[in-house]
Each structure stands twice: as structure tokens, then as C-alpha cells.
Amino acid sequence: MSSIQVAKALNNNVIIAHHPEHGEVVVIGKGIGFNRKTGDAIPLEAVEKMFILTSRYEQEQYKQLVPHVDEQLIEIIGEIVTYISRKTQTELNEHIHIALTDHLAFAIKRAEQDLAFHNPFLYETKEIYPVEYELAEYAIRLIHQNLGVDLGEDEIGFVALHINSAMTNRHISEVRGHTQLIADLVDVVESELKFTILRNTLDYSRLLTHLRFAIERIRRGEQVGEVEKLDGLLKQEYPVLYGVAEKLTLMMEQRLNQPVYRAEVSYLTMHLHRVAPPHIK
Fold first, then answer.
1. Highest mean pLDDT pick, 42-56, 86-100, 135-149, 204-218
2. Where would I find the PRD domain in this sequence (predicted)?
3. Among 61, 90, 101, 205, which residue's Cβ finds the most Cβ atoms within 10 Å?
4. Other CB atoms closer than 10 Å to residue 263's CB: what's the count?
5. Contacts of 265 (CB under 8 A, 6+ apart)
6. 69-169, what's its fold?
7. Residue 37, by phi and psi: left (phi above 0), alpha (psi -120 to 50) or beta?
8. Half-sphere exposure of 44 (CA within 13 A, CB side)
9. pTM of the model
10. Which fold has domain 173-275?
11. What does the alpha-carbon distance between residue 197 and residue 43 come to, in Å, rounded to a whole number?
12. Where are the domains of the chain?
């Protein structure tokens, strides 16, 4: 069988169908449900331009969501997901359809009620995930153009995290948690060293990038090269910065529930030396 059979059209853009390989699936695509009747066959070649939810759990979530979401928004999200997939050449986790639809539908409702929602780690998101942020800008711009609702910069940051979640196959709570952790680590640095790091500097951007990759290494259990001589020298030359670096690694260890290799302290000390005022050692 080289086609899918329509079981039910949920609306013009979403159908439930029987797939030759996956059984019952939810298919999302512009106009796919228009004038469709039960038993209609759709060639698989045509379905290649659609999105197929094969996970039963994702299907059930999406079925419950669809009746409460404007059809035009579903169509726009399809365009957004296609754009992201094409731009990144990445096979996105199918949960992005549920996550983005649910999130953006709620964000639009809040905007219409003039209920602002502040993004506490917008700057960090923009710096840590520049590709995802640019894709999210496109998404928010498309919604503005088609629905006349400007969701603003805070929402760009939230959508960027959803995009990263879909690209990396990590749950949004984990992605958000890591971004929050980085923001908290920066707060500790500023509190311990009693100064504010300039956000628009290259050194600050490098610090955020280092913290992101340190978290990734710790999460994967990846060991960085030991630097015993350098470690001793840094501890002696920069005792204050070294002490802050130790606090940061302990914080990462506790929040990620993973051991942190000692070498991370040395690398963090060097990055702190870049951003700290010259008198702090």
C-alpha cells in the first residue's frame, strides 16, 4: 500500500489516518483535511510534505489540543516547523508540534488580554542559542504578519528554547533548566565578586558559551584534560577567582546531579579572569 487512508478530518489542516507502516497516525499539513472523507486515499508522496505524528502519546496530546486552537495558527506553525527543519537540516522531534502549538496559542491569548510575561533569561538565551534565537525571530515575525499579534522579544526567547529542545531531543524543562542554571551561575559570579558584568562584551559572551559547554560536558559525563600544574598556578595567582570557580562547579554538580571533574575549576578560573576587573585576583 503506497498511500494513507483518511480515518477522520479534524479540520482543514489535520487528519487522523491509517499509515501502512505506523498504523494510526495524525497528519498535519496545509489543506490536507479540506473536503476529505473517511476512506479517502492520499499518496505517500504527497504526505512527504506533511508532518506525521507516529508516537501514540504525542497523537493523543495533539488530538486534545486541536479543537482549542485557531486553524490559521496550526497552518502557521506548520510553516514555522518546515522552515526550521529546512534551515537546520535537522530531523526535529515530533513533540515540537504539540509544544509550539500549545505555547504559542497561550501566548497569543495572553497578548490579546494584555498580560505581559517577562522572560528572566532572555539575554542568556540569545547569547547561548544564537541559531535557535534567529529561527524564533522568524516564527514570531510570521505570527505578527499573519495574525496581527506582536508577541515581543520575551517570547522569542521562549520559542528559541522550544526549538533547541526539538533539535536536541531534550525535554523543554531540561533546556529551560540549563538556561536558568547559567543565569544563576552568572548571578553568583556578580554577587561574589561584587561587580556587574557588562552584557554586551565579547568576554561575557565567551563566559556564557563556556558555561553552556561545561554543563553539556557534565551532563554527558565527558572528562576534560587534567591540568595539574596550571591548576596549582591558578589557585596561587588568583585565589579569589579560583574560589568562585569552585563554588560554580559545586553548584553545577548539585543542580545537574552529576560529578564535575576538577579541571573544570581551572578552565572556569581563566574565563572569570577575562571578565573580572583587573584588581580582583
1. 135-149
2. 68-173, 174-281
3. 101
4. 18
5. 231, 242, 245, 246, 249
6. PTS-regulatory domain, PRD (1.10.1790)
7. beta
8. 9
9. 0.85
10. PTS-regulatory domain, PRD (1.10.1790)
11. 57
12. 1-65, 69-169, 173-275
CA 279, CA 240: separation in Å to the nearest integer? 11
- CA distances, 206 to each of 66, 101, 133, 189, 217 (Å): 42, 33, 17, 14, 16
User: Topology of 1-65 in CATH?
Assistant: Transcription Regulation, Sacy; Chain A (2.30.24)
β-pairing, 14-19 vs 23-28, is: antiparallel
pLDDT in tens, 207-259: 898 899 889 888 888 776 656 677 788 888 899 999 999 999 999 999 999 98
Between the alpha carbon of residue 103 and those of residues 99, 116, 214, 241, 278, the distances in Å are 6, 14, 29, 40, 44
Q: Give the residue carrying C-alpha cell 560554580.
A: 248
Please write the tens of the pLDDT for every residue from 206-219.
889 889 988 988 88
